[in-house]
Design a protein that fits this description.
9 helices, four-stranded parallel sheet, 4 strands, 10% strand, 41% helix, TIM Barrel, 226 residues, alpha/beta
Amino acid sequence: MLKRLRTDRIDLLYQHRVDPQVPIEDVAGAVNDLMAQGKVLHWGLSEMGLKTLRRAHPELPVTAVQNEYSMLWREPEREVIPLCEELGIGFVPWSPLGVGFLTGAIDANTRFAAGDICGVESRFSPENLPDNLALVEVVKSWALRKQATLAQISLAWLMAQKAWIVPIPGTTQMPHMLENIGAAAVRFTPAELAELNRAVSAIQIRGARLPDAVLVFSGVEAPAKN
């Protein structure tokens, strides 16, 4: 890993995803050995269960948890984010723009090519997409209000939830990267954030994040499992 990255250390090493065949205590021990050698500075877990996180943290303090989280997928608010707050662990949302949905790149007529993960997510199916686009309309209204882009509003909303939430939008295009960085300049007053949260919460997202078969294949743990 170090040779490929041409570095002498990994600043933050995640386990993607939890291997049910290997005790998390053993994983923590292996990472601790790497830390002792100076090869790893911090470690994190991705899409783990709550019990796994509780077992891992006493063995070797976890720096960050990386889970999907956005206006489109708010499940971490129920249990994972409160547990991170309890344990003093940072939270890193992946897919913070809802695989492009929150940027306005998808509309009611959008259909997905074979192999596109969105094509198997029922939240983007033809029968659910029109209803879910109500969320994009909320983001559009705030983008106009704040003179920002939809992506910037979506990222700024995440960062406003907790000071220790750091989203990681992915892009291969420089203009998008610069746009995403601009989200740091978007601010909400407490009243504005409460208003926006109410508007987001009022929209019931239809459809599932991923089919069960995909969740099992990717090793995503259910929040309450070990």
